[in-house]
């Protein structure tokens, strides 16, 4: 896991190392300065020599400036390394996501990909900065301080040998105890946010059924749990500082007692043994050592919290796309003919979802022959795998067995980009992106002229409403297309797909929010303006498909029947049922009008 | 800047208001902090006393008597013990205060949110509302749990240390103050410039997060359009902008610590030189209590330690300044959210259970009778009861989401009890808007809506909504069991009621197929169910609430027509004997309605039964036959 993450370090290795080096230098200065301070007291003030005070004073200032120099550098490089590292991590993840196939995306779910790219990266950034600036300096500080203490008095240094392991042991104990509690805290926290999200989204349902009070008590319940778990965990962490203070005070008292005896024994003569200055020095170092241990324990606690974020990032980085380009790809698509030959398909089992539904074949033994330029309708109940069927054509998913040919060749032989350029698909859950209408449409063809855009919009019956907007084609679309109606959005998405001038055009229930009349107009323009293009139309309304050259009736992943409208009305029960349900009561008047 | 400070001041005040709800705890914590700070100060003072009074006198004596020293150490040990106890208590109690404060804020936020009008949710991005609970509450929690106790403790330590300094030497304290004021000026400058970069970092992070969210949500579209390269370019640009600002902001704030340290050393040296000069030249020292005397060497040594004890908490506070500013900005957003105007309700007519005797006389009763009445108190103190029957009238109603943009014009309609009224028309014609006026998600601009001949403005909103059932196109299921999701329609419903409702909606058979039947827990808004199944649950939910008036807003449009046929009988059961408003773009769904209203650009342009509208050969006729006419 760590190795996967470290691969993203790249150009920031240098600044990471510089941070470590500068931090060590900073620590060295932080150690030297108290030595100077004690000298200043011993040789300057105690002896009453002003020149000595000046001498050590200036020395302190010089070392202080050096500390400032290294400290600022370490601050700068540390921030640069951490920001750069996380920028690289984010970029690597994002680029990997771009290579993902649909099944990779399904596996992770959109929401979890977003969390990994945002919150998780921020956690790692903070932990990494802390790590290179603090975690390295801690042990160095402890080591140096201990050596200095040894040089002053071996006897007194022994105190640390007892206290440090004791403190370290207690800190580890605290971390171990707290870890499972915090895992639970975060899980409960997620659940709480989930409740908020459900309520924000479902506020109409809540208000309709007067459930405000019920939801508030539901929220308060989980809010109380979050409170309890947090308190439990943080109360244990709160033991850190009294524990630390206890060790510090014990050290102080012991050092004072033993130190005093030694000073008296030496007569406060540096040549003979411990002096008063040494004593202050020892006390300062003892505080430094314990402080470093304390910071170290905080760093570990932080890394513990960040480690789950690190794991999630590594997962995303290690995920390999399961649809790749062939070695010698075919770079052009001959025509828009499509052949399904004994195609079976099932979704790969996502690790977190083991329901029966996913393991079963979604499509079974599909055999179809679609000629170039044909219009094909697909009809079937919700869950009959209509969408799954068409998503195989541009290789958004790979068939599990059997072969699928486009333009007379297996789809797996094509260059992916070539294939997807020739197959335009309007997805059921379609997205517009923030930007102008023009920018959105140019996704289909970046070099499209204004004339071409207008034509495509006309074909999709979108030109009329676009021109009614004050800014016309320059109208800004908000994120998710929230400022256009459902029907307008669908028509824009169709226009965008038309601009690709595809050999095969697939509409996955893409006119459901468009009124019948406009729908019919769109169908008409397809017939007249795109005779060469194979058009595959998934629809719920019979009227959207009844003029198709062939209509495929899907039932639970099987092809139930293929035929024209008239044939199916006559021979196919499912189709007739759907047809009748849509023309019920009005059926007779339909007949009359025809 | 001035204005910023004011806002931060107000936010801080409100935050403190939340914390002071727990007065006893807070007093205990403050007392413990003082005890702990005093012990820390004592340990600083300790060196002087130790060296001056207990070590120096022993020098040169043949048989040093350590009992004095031992006594002193014992006294210190007791003080230290109190200090540790103080630290222990205040650390643990302040966790509780912090978490309880957060819990209060959270609960207030959520309760407030439940009472906000629908308008608020329409006008604000859901992501923005969520981020109040996640990002803003998180930074605030960190501040309350970590920064605030540290701030208080640092403040007391500084006060205690300052008192000790005054006690030791007036002159040296004066020098210290001058230097510290200089230090503070430097801190202010650095934190101001770091603050700018932090704002920049937050902005660029917001733009980066927004981009990532949009792109990842549209990832499948990106694939279909081979748009990966452009998506990466746009990302890289924002990622780089974020990297630069984040690097600068953190660099500046990281540098705060070494800068403070160095200035601390500077102060140390200045005091050493001045003190040394005074001591060596025998200048008179003034201590606050100790009074006039000679500056001893021990005093200087102690004073020097004190200056460090004074600088340390100062640098700790300044290192946290930026995160505190970020947290306060979050708190400000949270409080502004809580200041949003809630839904007002001046209604006084309530819905009560009742008994109706043969003469039609209505008497109120407490238990459920299946019969309801509107209880209408009048100005003169009398009460009248009106039977709940479900008649709705709209009289010349105008409405606009924003004041000067009317979207509904002069809507007049009468729905008699038990009638089925349908609205048809293009997207954006105002069909849904009309139903949102009946249940008062929005209030009308002009005209009158009456329910059983009572102006709906006089009816309490909760009671009005209880009398209306809604099935919406978008089904919102909650993370809970299927049973609880059905019971959502009526919390008083028994399990049997829920199952009966599910049977009525034809949902019972598929629910029994689920792994745990009615006890199956739904997650992710019921993502494991098909659209049709979710719709059936939503119908069951409306059935269990058993209202006299139903609103079906595109309730079946995401179900394929074959499934719809199955649902239809359930819906027919549900609609029997009720006043029903139906919105559908699928005309087959509405043609058996008593009255069909054709809406266009917010006006009713045609009304009548299916047959009469077809005969009229107007807009409805065109819509109905549109596909054929084009041939």
TrEMBL record, chain A:
Molecular function in Gene Ontology: ABC-type oligopeptide transporter activity; ATP binding; ATP hydrolysis activity
Main location class: membrane
Entry's Gene Ontology cellular component terms: plasma membrane
Domain ABC transporter residues, every copy: 338-581
Residue intervals passing through the bilayer: 20-41, 53-70, 134-153, 159-178, 246-265, 285-306
Keywords in alphabetical order: ATP-binding, Cell membrane, Membrane, Nucleotide-binding, Transmembrane, Transmembrane helix, Transport
Subcellular location: Cell membrane
Domain ABC transmembrane type-1 intervals: 17-304
Topology term for the membrane: Multi-pass membrane protein
InterPro entries: AAA+_ATPase, ABC1_TM_dom, ABC1_TM_sf, ABC_transporter-like_ATP-bd, ABC_transporter-like_CS, P-loop_NTPase, Type_1_exporter
Signal peptide (from-to): none
Record PANTHER family: ATP-BINDING CASSETTE SUB-FAMILY B MEMBER 10, MITOCHONDRIAL, ATP-DEPENDENT PERMEASE MDL1, MITOCHONDRIAL
Name assigned to this protein: ATP-binding cassette subfamily B protein
From TrEMBL, chain B:
Pfam family, one: ABC_membrane
Gene Ontology cellular-component annotations: plasma membrane
Compartment(s) where it occurs, according to its Swiss-Prot or TrEMBL record: Cell membrane
Domain ABC transporter: 392-626
Membrane-traversing stretches: 26-48, 68-90, 174-191, 262-280, 286-306
GO molecular function: ABC-type oligopeptide transporter activity; ATP binding; ATP hydrolysis activity
InterPro entries in alphabetical order: AAA+_ATPase, ABC1_TM_dom, ABC1_TM_sf, ABC_transporter-like_ATP-bd, ABC_transporter-like_CS, P-loop_NTPase, Type_1_exporter
Keyword entries, A-Z: ATP-binding, Cell membrane, Membrane, Nucleotide-binding, Transmembrane, Transmembrane helix, Transport
Gene3D superfamilies (UniProt xref): ABC transporter type 1, transmembrane domain (1.20.1560.10), P-loop containing nucleotide triphosphate hydrolases (3.40.50.300)
Keyword Membrane carried by entry: yes
Membrane topology: Multi-pass membrane protein
ABC transmembrane type-1 domain sequence ranges: 27-326
Name assigned to this protein: ATP-binding cassette subfamily B protein
Organism ancestry: Bacteria, Bacillati, Bacillota, Erysipelotrichia, Erysipelotrichales
């Amino acid at each position: 896991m760590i190795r996967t993450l470290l691969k993203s370090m790249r150009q920031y290795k240098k600044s990471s190392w510089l941070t470590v080096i500068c931090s060590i230098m900073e620590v060295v200065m932080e150690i030297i300065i108290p030595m100077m301070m004690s000298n200043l007291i011993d040789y300057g003030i105690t002896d009453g020599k002003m020149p000595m005070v000046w001498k050590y004073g200036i020395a302190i200032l010089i070392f202080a400036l050096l500390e400032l120099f290294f400290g600022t550098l370490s601050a700068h490089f540390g921030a640069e390394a951490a920001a750069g590292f996380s920028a690289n991590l984010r970029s690597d993840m994002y680029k990997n996501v771009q290579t993902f196939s649909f099944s990779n995306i399904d596996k992770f779910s959109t929401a979890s990909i977003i969390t990994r790219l945002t919150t998780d990266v921020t956690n790692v950034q903070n932990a990494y900065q802390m790590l290179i600036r603090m975690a390295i300096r801690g042990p160095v500080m402890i080591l140096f301080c201990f050596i200095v203490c040894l040089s002053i008095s071996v006897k007194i240094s022994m105190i640390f040998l007892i206290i440090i392991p004791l403190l370290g042991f207690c800190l580890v104990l605290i971390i171990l105890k707290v870890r499972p509690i915090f895992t639970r805290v975060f899980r409960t926290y997620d659940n709480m946010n989930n409740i908020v999200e459900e309520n924000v989204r479902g506020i109409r349902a809540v208000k309709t059924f007067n459930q405000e009070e019920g939801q508030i008590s539901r929220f308060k319940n989980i809010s109380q749990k979050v409170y309890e778990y947090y308190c439990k965990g943080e109360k244990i962490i709160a033991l850190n500082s009294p524990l630390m203070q206890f060790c510090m005070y014990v050290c102080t008292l012991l050092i004072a007692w033993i130190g005093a005896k030694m000073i008296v024994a030496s007569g406060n003569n540096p040549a003979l043994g411990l002096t008063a200055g040494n004593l202050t020095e020892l006390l300062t170092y003892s505080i430094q050592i314990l402080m470093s241990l304390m910071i170290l324990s905080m760093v570990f606690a932080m890394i513990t919290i960040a480690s789950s974020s690190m794991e999630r990032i590594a997962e995303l980085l290690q995920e390999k796309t399961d649809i790749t380009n062939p070695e010698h790809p075919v770079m052009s698509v001959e025509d828009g003919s499509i052949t399904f030959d004994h195609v079976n398909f099932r979704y790969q089992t996502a690790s977190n979802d083991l329901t029966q539904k996913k393991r079963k074949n979604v499509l079974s033994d599909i055999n179809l022959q679609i000629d170039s330029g044909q219009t094909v309708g697909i009809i079937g109940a919700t869950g009959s795998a209509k969408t799954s069927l068409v998503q195989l054509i541009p290789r958004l998913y790979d068939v599990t067995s059997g072969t699928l040919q486009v333009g007379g060749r297996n789809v797996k032989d094509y260059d992916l980009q070539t294939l997807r350029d020739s197959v335009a698909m309007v997805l059921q859950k379609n997205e517009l992106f923030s930007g102008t209408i023009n920018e959105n449409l140019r996704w289909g063809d970046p070099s499209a002229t204004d004339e071409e855009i207008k034509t495509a919009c006309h074909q999709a019956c979108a030109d009329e409403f676009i021109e009614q907007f004050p800014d016309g084609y320059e109208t800004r679309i908000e994120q998710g297309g929230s400022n256009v109606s459902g029907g307008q959005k669908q028509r824009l998405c169709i226009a965008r797909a038309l601009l690709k001038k595809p050999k095969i055009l697939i509409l996955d229930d893409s006119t459901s929010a468009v009124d019948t009349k406009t729908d019919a107009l769109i169908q008409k323009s397809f017939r007249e303006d795109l005779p060469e293009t194979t058009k595959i139309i998934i629809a719920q309304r019979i009227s959207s498909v009844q003029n198709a050259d062939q209509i495929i009736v899907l039932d639970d992943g099987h092809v139930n029947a293929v035929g024209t409208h008239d044939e199916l009305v006559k021979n196919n029960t499912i189709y007739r049922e759907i047809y009748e349900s849509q023309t019920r009561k009005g059926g007779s008047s339909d007949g009359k009008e025809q | 800047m001035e204005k910023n400070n004011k806002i931060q001041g107000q936010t801080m005040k409100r935050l403190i208001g939340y914390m002071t709800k727990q007065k006893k705890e807070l007093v205990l914590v403050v007392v413990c902090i003082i005890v702990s700070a005093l012990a820390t100060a004592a340990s600083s003072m300790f060196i002087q006393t130790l060296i001056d009074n207990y070590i120096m006198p022993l020098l040169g004596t043949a048989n040093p008597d350590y009992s004095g020293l031992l006594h002193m150490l014992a006294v210190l040990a007791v003080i230290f013990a109190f200090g540790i106890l103080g630290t222990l208590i205040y650390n643990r109690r302040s966790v509780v205060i912090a978490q309880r404060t957060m819990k209060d804020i959270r609960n207030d936020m959520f309760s407030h949110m439940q009472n906000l009008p629908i308008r608020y949710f329409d006008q604000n991005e859901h992501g923005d509302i969520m981020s109040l609970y996640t990002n803003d509450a998180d930074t605030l929690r960190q501040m309350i749990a970590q920064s605030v106790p540290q701030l208080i403790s640092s403040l007391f330590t500084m006060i205690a240390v300052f008192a000790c300094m005054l006690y030791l030497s007036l002159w040296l304290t004066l020098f210290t103050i001058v230097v510290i004021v200089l230090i503070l000026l430097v801190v202010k400058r650095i934190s101001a410039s770091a603050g700018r970069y932090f704002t920049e970092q937050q902005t660029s992070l917001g733009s980066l997060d927004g981009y990532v969210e949009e792109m990842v949500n549209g990832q499948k579209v990106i694939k279909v359009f081979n748009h990966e390269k452009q998506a990466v370019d746009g990302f890289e640009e924002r990622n780089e902008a974020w990297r630069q600002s984040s690097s600068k902001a953190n660099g500046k704030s990281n540098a705060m610590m070494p800068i403070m340290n160095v200035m601390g050393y500077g102060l140390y040296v200045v005091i050493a030189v001045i003190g040394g000069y005074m001591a060596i030249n025998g200048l008179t020292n003034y201590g606050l209590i100790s009074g006039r005397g000679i500056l001893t060497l021990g005093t200087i040594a102690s004073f020097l330690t004190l200056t460090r004890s004074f600088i340390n908490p100062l640098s700790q506070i300044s290192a946290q300044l930026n995160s505190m500013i970020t947290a306060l900005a979050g708190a400000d957003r949270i409080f502004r959210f809580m200041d949003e105007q809630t839904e007002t309700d001046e209604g006084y007519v309530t819905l009560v259970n009742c008994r109706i005797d043969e003469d039609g006389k209505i008497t109120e009763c407490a238990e459920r009778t299946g019969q309801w009445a509107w209880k209408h108190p009048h100005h003169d103190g009398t009460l009248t009861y009106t039977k709940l029957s479900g008649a709705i009238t709209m009289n010349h109603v105008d409405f606009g989401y924003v004041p000067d943009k009317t979207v509904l014009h002069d809507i007049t309609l009468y729905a008699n009890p038990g009638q089925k009224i349908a609205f048809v028309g293009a997207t954006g014609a105002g069909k849904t808007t009309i139903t949102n006026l009946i249940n008062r998600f929005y209030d009308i601009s002009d005209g009158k809506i009456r329910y059983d001949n009572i102006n709906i403005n006089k009816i309490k909103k909760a009671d009005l909504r209880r009398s209306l059932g809604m099935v919406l196109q978008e089904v919102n299921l909650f993370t809970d069991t299927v049973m609880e999701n059905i019971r959502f329609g009526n919390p008083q419903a028994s399990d049997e009621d829920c199952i009966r409702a599910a049977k009525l909606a034809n949902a019972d058979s598929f629910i029994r197929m689920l792994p745990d039947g009615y006890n199956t827990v739904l997650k992710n808004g019921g993502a494991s169910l098909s659209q049709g199944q979710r719709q059936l649950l939503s119908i069951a939910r409306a059935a269990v609430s058993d209202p006299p008036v139903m609103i079906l807003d595109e309730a079946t449009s995401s179900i394929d027509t074959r499934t719809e046929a199955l649902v239809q009988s359930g819906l027919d059961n549900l609609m029997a004997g009720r006043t029903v408003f139906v919105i559908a773009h699928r005309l087959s769904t509405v043609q058996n309605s008593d009255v069909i209203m054709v809406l266009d650009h917010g006006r009713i342009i045609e009304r009548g039964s299916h047959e009469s509208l077809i005969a009229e050969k107007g807009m409805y006729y065109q819509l109905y036959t549109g596909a054929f006419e084009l041939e």
